[in-house]
Amino acid sequence: MEHSSSEDSELSDSDIVEHKEETYAQLRAGKLKVKHGDNAFRCPFCLGKKKQDYNLKDLLQHATGIGAAPKRSAKVKATHLGLAMFLEKDIASSLEKPLQIVVYKPETTKSKEEVYVWPWMGIVVNLHYELTGEAFSNESEDRLRAQLSKFRPHKVTILGDDKDQPFCAIVQFAKDWSGLKDALAFEKHFIVEQYGKTNWNKINCRKDDLYGWLARSDDYNSSGPIGGHLRENGDLRSVGDLEREGMQETEKRVAQYTHQIEVTNKQMSELELKNYQNAMKLDRMMEEKDQLVEEHNEKIRKMQKAACRDSRKIIDENIRLYGKLEAKKKEIDRKGKQLEKLATKSNTNREKLEAEKEENAKENRLLNLATQKKKEQDEKLLRLVEKQKQEKEDALKKLYNLEMQLASKQKLELEIEQLKGKFEVMSHMGEEDTKLKEKLDNLRETLEEKNEEMEGMDSLNQTLIIKERRTNDELEEAKKELTKELPKMSSVRSQIGVRRMGELDQKAFYAACKEKIAEDDPEELALLCSKWEDEIRQPEWHPFKVILVGEEAKEIIKDDDEKLQALKAELGEKAHDVVVKALLEVNEYNPSGRYPLPELWNFKEDRKAPMGEVAAYIVKRWKANRRKNTYYS
């Protein structure tokens, strides 16, 4: 018996499931016998009971009831639960009709529960011994409370008798479970000392000390000062009542918290959705910003190209006119010298010579007038170049300011969206905390300031965009004027000039064709050159293919194009390369129109010439020519 009791004490409630499975395995293996006869069954764990034989239903009811009994030991409950599982799964499954299991529920009727006065109160009597000769007062209550301090009483109230002498004291404890624990310890102390209620009710009880007990229903319903005070300040409650009320309150709070969690989760999901939408909106804004910057840069590049073309035209035209003027001056000087020689040889033709001199002087005046106009045009061109250079710097400066404004605007929009997200999150966290309210007010003020700053920045950006467009239009007009005048200043040996991109290089093509054509026939070469220039301009001929270089798509010439292969076979590799070069240029500069476009070009380094380089070159040439005084007669 002692061994069995030690095993029961060693088995805890957490081990019930494991021991239940072990018992079930032993029953299935036949180590424990349950069935005795056709319809007789016995419990292998209750062999000492008077009733041994059960039918299947009664034995299942027996095993289920003991397994659910709260006062049984853990081992007894585990073995009977294992027996119930075996009967239900292995024995009852062989029957035609399934068994109906009735779960045993221990009786917890309110009539069997002990009823106390709540809030928990204790009664102390025989105060005549403790407070002999004293009238009860607050000081007496405090002293009695200090004497019972180890039971942590909340309040001590002394009641008087008919003669206004201390009769008894009511000790009130805390309303929670710790108060019940203190009250029970209070009662147990007096019981152990044999100064409890039972001892007080004896006829010959000792009157040498205080008696005390825990107030119950009989005290509550009694007559006299004790019953009146208890009924006035408390109610009758059982421990089960408080447990049930606690369970109901707990379930109510759990349901309330569950609802709050669901609402909070829904709000968080909505906030996450809004955050995702804001992130998508910001991504779109960044893409639009990049697209605007790229379009603006592309427009600037086109304007620079157009300005380069115009500048080249002006330079070429100026150089051509300068060459003509120089040739005319030399011719006039040569004729003047001849006239001087003829004048010394013969005076007969003096009138004729005077007439020729007069005519030469007239031509010289016309040339001087042309030179003067040329000078004015050069000065006008120089002013135009300087103006274009200044406008370009202003445009770049405005572009930089615009990009900085755009970046600031996007940063501000991001801050506003983050502030909105924080505001919405904090607004759903409740409004009980004063600090939280202050944070919300500060956040709302910050958000309003950011919105006002955003509106001001939008207005400023709009103004800058309008000014930038107006400046671009003015710059475009200036570049057109420069394009008209620049080719006039160019010469054959100019370092900077205009090259027609996409145009077949006739000189290189002639040189390549001469290696393959035996007879030097200019007409045939001109026909071949014209033919391939027409082929290059044909929009339906597109000998290109797209490849990926890194992450970028790039168009290159098809190696197996029939026309190019025929050209290589007929005129050779060099002529093929000249045509391929023109194709690549026209595909880069004018893929839709398929006709050559002029481009500023650095012939010395064989590359594009930036607008700044062209302007610097024009100014340098103008200053050099001015120092040499070659523009003027």
From TrEMBL:
User: Residue span of the signal peptide, if any?
Assistant: none
Any Pfam family from its record, for instance, is: XS
Please list where the region (Disordered) is annotated.
344-363
Q: Which InterPro entries match?
A: FDM1-5/IDN2, FDM1-5/IDN2_XH, XS_domain, XS_domain_sf, Znf-XS_domain
Keywords attached to this entry: Coiled coil, RNA-mediated gene silencing
Instruction: Please provide the Gene Ontology terms (biological process) for this protein.
Output: regulatory ncRNA-mediated gene silencing
Give all residue intervals belonging to the Zinc finger-XS domain. 43-84
Domain XS, first and last residues per copy: 113-222
The Factor of DNA methylation 1-5/IDN2 domain covers 499-628
Q: Does the keyword Coiled coil apply?
A: yes
Q: What is this protein called?
A: XH/XS domain-containing protein
What organism, scientifically named, is this protein from?
Answer: Urochloa decumbens
